[in-house]
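User: Predict the complex with beta-D-mannopyranose.
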Amino acid sequence: MLTPIHQLTAIPNLPWEDRPAGYDGVIWRYSRNPVIPRDATPRSNSIFNSAVVPYQGRFAGVFRVDDTRRVMNIHAGFSDDGLSWQIAPEPIQFHCDDPEVARFQYRYDPRVCWIEDRYYITWCNGYHGPTIGVGYTYDFQTFYQLENAFLPFNRNGVLFPRKINGKYAMLSRPSDNGHTPFGDIFYSESPDMIHWGCHRWVFGAGGSPWNHTKIGAGPTPIETSEGWLLIYHGVLTSCNGFVYSFSAALLDLDKPWKVIARAAPYLMSPQTLYECVGDVPNVVFPCAALVDGDTGRMAIYYGAADTVTALAFAYVHELVDWVKAEAL
Ligand code: BMA
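Assistant: Here is the predicted structure with beta-D-mannopyranose placed in the model:
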């Protein structure tokens, strides 16, 4: 039975490929992955962990581009079909009321979220350590930056697509200034997108061994009648370093810090060549999931091996059923 999905508009041109014949898994990779190669802009070393949204019948996005100096920054891009992207060669320049807010050492891992009348962007912003940068745009041409949401150290700031109980809502993952060997997901709310508080613990690392070290929210949560569907990444520390996989959980619609169900297995782990070989091997890192409200088709964009951007497909109602059936 189809799980009714809330507030999701039709995306008739969503990138899509049917489940491969003879395969019965809940998620499958695009056969022509990766969709964005590492050298899609003239000076890029790698393009990964990036976020896209439907935009005026096409698609737009904000992309993590590490350049050939290995400076990390975020760039805007457009696509007709969600597969072939034109990514700006220069990073986004934000308009900023206070020059202090504009100061940063690096930017990475953007998320994009439509709320009310504009597209908000959150990213890991280097301001004396990683914290959560917040900005917005109406057109992916002109960008405005707001205050950093939190004090350092924090990563994986992910907004909910509507106010909850009258407040903007964000998930984040408090961390440290390095390669953070710990980390749980927290919920925070704000009346104005500037001041964040009422922090609540959502869930922690170690639900299953694949996420034993740390976790972090991925794409914008998807509102379903069964709760918010949250796709999140998790990290296992192997004898050869970190392994990044991802899975999903359902959060209460009105109190999203309450977990309804959290799947025990991973949904996807690094298994293909482009996920296992690259600048950082063994990483799948999702930052966007688009859903066609008419069919429940999902296109999940994820970074692979910190080098390229790849695409996977699922049906949102199947994913909700899977999370419940596989719950811890
Ligand atoms: C995390 C972030 C991600 C990256 C991952 C694996 O700490 O830096 O951008 O994909 O490590 O290197």
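The helical segments are 99-102, 273-276, 316-325.
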